[in-house]
Predict the structure.
Amino acid sequence: MHKSSWKSRRLGRRSQWQNPRFRQHSSNERWDTRTQQSPPDSDHDEEEAPSTSSSTAGSSSVPDLPGYYFDPEKNRYFRLLPGHNNCNPLTRESIQQKEMEHKRLQLLEEEDKQKKKITRMGFNAYSLLQKSKLGFLSVPSYCRLAHELRVSCMQRKKVQIHSSDPSALASDRFNLILADTNSDRLFTVNDVKVGGSKYGIISLRGLKTPALRVHMHENLYFTNRKVNSVCWASLNHLDSHILLCLMGIAETPGCATLLPASLFVSSHTAGDRPGMLCSFRIPGAWSCAWSMNSQANNCFSTGLSRWVLVTNVVTGHRLSFGTSSDVLAQQFAVMTPLLFNGCRSGEIFAIDMRCRNEGKNWKTTRLFHHSAVTSVQILQEEKCLMASDMAGTIKLWDLRTTKCVKQYEGHVNEYALLPLHVHEEEGIVVAVGQDCYTRIWSLHDAQLLRTIPSPHPTSRANIPSVAFSSRLGGPRGAPGLLMAVQQDLYCFSYS
């Protein structure tokens, strides 16, 4: 009995060694498909583990192997290493990063070759105008196609930034840019090389083609704390201040700081006062919003962990509202005294400021996403609200019926607090994904108009910050998109 079992085990090992697939995998980590005699069962492999090879999707002759990656250039299989302790490991993350970088370079090359990127043959302004006059195009269709034409023809141009400290421009990285209401100024948050952040304001008055030149006004304000949220504030006049929410560090608590915008300008005009500079101790604010409603005048809101705090800048009076989740996004309505909040739980609710946190009736509108809400934007007539979440979902909600009326596909997000930009005058929606691609949709029919690759390699630290305006640089400016990534500022203009 013992002898027969020994023989069977010996024959089993011999049959395994005679199998060419087993012998090649044991002798070498690489498997050359040129010496392959019989392909393995691809259906069985797909059940065990999904393939990470991009070539297998395009060619059915190359089988999937669990734990192996097929390189189409070298025509070989390479073993996927499980960890990062080896020298130059080949992992799924590195393969995906390589494929994303290859795709980004291809898109950049295509954009550089084409002087005018047209989305379809025969798509030009003259044909659109003729079809509209002949009645072949309705007004909504004509407007959408006109926006699509202009967006598709935007070309990337680098903006020259002048500053009193040119060495700082070469080392400090853009973390955030935020345009004011008139789009003639950009507030910037830059990550300093030695650690921390500093602030500045870029004047967009000189942003005119063909020479794109802007001037950065810097200030000595510097912080070693993380900037969680920023918004423009109108205290003395329109966009007179900047409101910043800073995260607490060690024994230093978090705070909301109100900085006058005039502090960043070297020369003051006659009668231009610096304005109020104040700081409010607030524990760990995730988001902030400034009120332009007359019933909540001189007030700002901060979204905390399970709390919403509304503060009057002049009197210091505060209203607090308890929530069941972290408040990651906020915006005040203008015509009605409502504050809309987006939570980590996926809930969106509005606070009626007239209730003064008395009773339980201060929650008016309630909407729900399946993931953490990262941005809320109220449209001009305040009948609709746009929201995005950490699942990459962008929805347009009708506030009267509390139903989703449109969904915008293609946005990429998994965990980041990424903003959403809605521009009703131009009829577009702009969002930067976690994959560093800037996507532009039509507001009216949710069609994806353009995908813009980042000029720099894709990484978590290189997610671009963008600002879109119908009048870049002031009232006579042209519509366009500003993109800040690393130390560079780019302009995508219609003209």
